[in-house]
Amino acid sequence: VFKGVIERIFVLTVLCLEVASALTLLGALKIATRFKENENKVSNDFFLIGNLISVLFGFVYFVVLRNLVFNG
Fold first, then answer.
1. Which among 44, 43, 54, 61 is positioned nearest to 6, based on CA atoms?
2. What is the pLDDT of residue 36?
3. N or C: which terminus of the chain has fewer CB atoms within 10 Å of its end residue's CB?
4. Is 19 exposed, middle or buried (0-12, 13-18, 19+ CB in 10 A)?
5. What is the mean pLDDT of residues 1-22?
6. What is the pLDDT of residue 30?
7. For the segment 12-58, what is each residue's pLDDT rounded down to a tens digit?
8. CA distance 21 to 45
9. Rg for the chain (alpha carbons), in Å?
């Protein structure tokens, strides 16, 4: 359930920021977790969630810095 929530937050964020090309990143990360299917599923889930959260933080940092520099 948690993984699905993170994925939906990611999709909502990139669409709100009009960075739909980041959906390609989501697809690539999901495929990357499928390549390691014979390994521990928990580690694959952490890989996907960790990368999505990392990219989300990158978007948040960008938006905050853009607003500080151009509107501050």
1. 54
2. 64
3. N
4. middle
5. 82
6. 80
7. 888 888 887 888 888 888 887 777 666 666 677 787 788 888 888 88
8. 22
9. 14
Q: Are 45 and 7 in contact (CB under 8 A)?
A: no
Helices then strands, counting H and E runs in the chain, come out as: 3, 0
Whole-model pTM? 0.60
**To 5 degrees, how large is the angle CA 33–CA 13–CA 60?**
95
Supply the angle between the helices 22-35 and 41-71 in degrees, to the nearest 10: 160
Q: What pLDDT was estimated at residue 41?
A: 66
Can you read off the two tokens belonging to residue 28? 């690539």
One-letter amino acid identity for 49? I
* Whole-number Å distance between alpha carbons of 64 and 58: 10
DSSP state of 38: T
pLDDT of residue 62 exceeding 70, the answer is: yes
